[in-house]
User: What shape does this take?
Amino acid sequence: MKEYKRSLNQQKIIDGMSKVYEKLIEFKKKSNSELVILKDNKIVRVKP
Assistant: This one.
């Protein structure tokens, strides 16, 4: 498998998206609301 080298900006974007994901999960747990995701081409509601 070929390794791909990311630029500094690309890595910052990926790191930022990871933080957004963590904060979203934290918010959904705090507000006791469902998380809507796409799984196996179906819309699924998950209680975090």
The mean pLDDT is 92. Strands lie at 35-39, 42-46. The chain has one domain: 8-46.
